[in-house]
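Thought: the user wants the 3D structure for the chain below. I'll pass the sequence to the structure tool as-is, report back what it returns, then summarize two notable features.
Action: structure_tool
Action Input:
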Amino acid sequence: VDIWPEQWGVTVRQFRELVDRCRSRPEWRAETSMHDFVRDWVLPETAGQGVGYALLANAGGPLEVNVMVSHSWNENVVEFLEALERSVSGTDVMFICALGLFQNGDGSGPTIAEQLGTTAEESPFSRVLEHISRVGRARGWRWRQGRFLQVLPTWLFIVAMTLYSVPLVAERCLPYRAQCLHLDSAVIWHGFLASRDKDAPAAPAMEELTAASKACWLASLAIGAIALLCKLGLRCVRLYTGRMVAVPNRQDDLYSRLWCVYEIFTSTTKQVPVELAWT
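Observation:
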């Protein structure tokens, strides 16, 4: 059965496991580049197998790619991995050419030239981007708004906590039920609010807050509830986060790498979102 490039994917956890396994060997060097990593570690792993590391790691069932990774082989492999860990989720499946293509050329599988095809459009890179675009178009708004919807609950929660802190900063008052707790007379201990000084004057009731503080407190409760509902609602919606992730590094200028520029151009042509990794 033919397995096409859109299934030559690995998760960031699988990449981490491979790197950690290699780093545990005494011959590992901290300055190992991606080029060195392929030559010294990936090639021995895949020798005689006829498939790239991605298919070898997922022999029981290839994974469908939703993230195309554009990077340089001159970068430090650990820095590259850590950038990906900051930029993709545990459920994302990445196409990384170093792990997706069969690199050995030992006769047990296709050559690099055979895998790349005779034109750029036939290359695995174009096929993966076309696959992401095709699946994304079929998902409609669940793709176009997918990344925004993923982070929306988090940002709403941040806004809610910011508004909740207004009475805390402006009036040194922690809203709690009908009574406002002063910071001077309350401590947090084992998750319970307890009075430090029983003779301290009673804290004001919530209605004694200024209009601005009261409005911020009520808004924080409303926005917090919306954030929770959004989080629960997204569990019922299958979002699609297909995209390209371009990984800058300290060794090469991203825009001096012709192939990376071409991949980004192809991605935008196919209307696949492009993100820069968090390096």
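Final Answer: Structure generated. Strands lie at 67-70, 94-95, 173-176, 179-182, 186-189, 192-195, 243-246, 274-276. Residues 5-116+242-276 form one domain.
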